[in-house]
Structures are given as structure tokens and as C-alpha cells.
Amino acid sequence: MDQDIAALNQKLDLLTAQVQYLTEQAQAAERGRQERAELMRDLTPIVNDGFRLATEQLEEIQEYVDLGDLLRLLKRLARNGRNFETMLDQLESLMDLVQTVGPLTDSAFGKAVEILAEAEHKGYFAFAQGGLKIADNIVTSFTEEDVAQLGDNVVLILNVVKAMTQPQIMSFLRSFVANVEAEVAKPVNTSLPALLGQMRDPNVRRGLALTMRVLRVVGSQG
């Protein structure tokens, strides 16, 4: 008798557990149904507004859009699905490349900023600004005819500059300027005896002779 009662109690406990499980499932289903109903009540105005807005927009463009065009567009999108997938893969690869190269570009940008700051400190930018001002003055000072004549004579000018910048010419000019500065700094005696005394100097006579020769060449060119 006790065993039968124990077995009956066990079955009752099992039945109670099953009933409780079914009750919980029913309550969960009811809560889900209520949540879906609330969601539908919340979404209904939004869907209606979206449908109304879409209808208004389609009414504005219905003169320019044909249903056949939309169908052809959809078919074309469907046919090019693999192309879109390939394009997205390439875009992802590009993003990975940007993420990889990003630190390198930051380092290069910082190095470039340092170089520009050093150049500005040394005066490169000021020199360039001065060069632009000089170029502007040159451009505004010459007419089109002057530029044409300059183009015709540029070879001659460059040859003259090349001849003037020969090492022996530059050494002569450097030595000449240094000696002239030294002589100018000395006291000058302009009396006639002093001048006659300088005439006895072989270097003075040679200089006069060379000067006369140069004057003769200049006169012949005229």
C-alpha cells in the first residue's frame, strides 16, 4: 500500500511538473504574441507613412520611369551579382591596404613636415618667395617684343656669359676687385709730381697701354 502511494505521488509530481512546463510555454507564447501585436501596432504607422511617402515619390517620377525600365534594371543587377561581389572583395582588399599603409603614410607625412620645417628655418621658402617676386618683376618689365628679341639672342647671351664665367676670367676679376679695394683704402696723392712718378711705374704704363688698346677696340666697334 505504501509503495502504491509513493508511486502515485511520483506520478503526481511528474504530472505537476509537466503541467507547470506547459503553463510556462503557454505564458511565453502569450507574451510573444502580445509583443508581436505591440510591434505591429508600433510599426503600422511607420509602414503607412513609408508607403505614403513612397507613393508620393513614385507619383512624382512616374512620367519618367517605366515599369519595364525597372524590370530591366533588376534583371541587370541580378546578372551582375558576381561582378558586385568581386567589386566588394576589391573594396575590402583596398580597405585592408589602407589600414596597412596608414601607419606608413603617417610616418611619411611626419617626415615631410619635419623636412618642410627645416627648409623654412633655413630660408628656402623666403628665397623662393623672393625668386617669385624677381620673376614677377622680370615678366612685368619686358614686353612681348623684348621676349622675342631675347629668344633670338639667347644663344649669344649664353656664349657671352659662358666666356665671362671661365675660371681664368673669374680669378682675374676676383684678384682685380681685391687689389682695387686695397688701393682705394690707401691715401691718394693727386699732385702732378706724384702722378708723374706713377708714370715711371712699368705696371702703370702697361695698364695705360692696355686701356688705350681696349679703347681702340671699343672705338672700332662703334
Describe this structure in words.
With 222 residues, this protein is mainly alpha-helical. The protein has three domains: 66 residues; 67 residues; 40 residues, no CATH class. It is 91% helix and 0% strand. It contains eight helices and no strands. The longest helix has 60 residues. The chain is elongated and about 165 Å long.
The count of DSSP E runs of length 2 or more, i.e. the number of strands, is: 0
Number of domains: 3
* Weakly predicted, low-confidence segments: none
The biggest sheet, with number of strands, parallel, antiparallel or mixed sense and barrel status, is:
none
Query: Gap between N and C termini, in Å?
Result: 154 Å
Helix content: over 70%
**Strand-residue proportion:** under 5%
Query: What does the overall shape look like?
Result: elongated
If helices are DSSP runs of H or I spanning 4 or more residues, what is the number of helices? 8
Give the helices and strands as they follow along the chain.
Answer: HHHHHHHH
CA-based gyration radius: 51 Å
